[in-house]
Amino acid sequence: MDVNKAAKSLEEKFRDRPWFLMVGTGEADGRLSLFLYVKSTRDVPPTLLREGWEGFPVVVRKIGVPRPAFGADLGRRPSESA
């Protein structure tokens, strides 16, 4: 399985969980990996850390809920005038 299919599969498995935010792909320790972004690590299945997912290591990152950095108008910073 390629990493993008594995990421999609991981998202489909956990997207309805209250702690889940999103899945990303990248490199960790020189290996192609899946990044699982969560609100809380408490309920993340420990087997994901030990065994990975679909042959890829899983790196769990706790983050806040993503939101636009500069408000609704993402094309312009607050210091820029209209």
The poorly predicted ranges are none
Please report the number of helical segments: 2
Radius of gyration: 16 Å
Helical content, roughly? 10-25%
Number of strands: 3
Shape call: globular
Average pLDDT, rounded to a whole number, is: 88
Terminal residue distance:
47 Å
Sheet bearing the most strands, described? Answer: 3 strands, mixed
In percent, how much strand structure appears in the residues?
25-35%
Structural class: alpha+beta
Q: Topology as H/E string?
A: HEEHE
How are the strands of the biggest sheet laid out side by side? Answer: 1-2-3
Note down, in words, how this protein is organized.
By secondary structure, the chain is α+β, with helices and mostly antiparallel strands. It has two helices and three strands. The protein has helices at 3-14, 46-51, and strands at residues 20-28, 31-38, 58-62. A hairpin with a 2-residue loop joins strand 1 and strand 2 (31-38). It is globular and about 45 Å long. The N and C termini lie far apart (47 Å). 11% of the residues are buried. The mean pLDDT is 88.
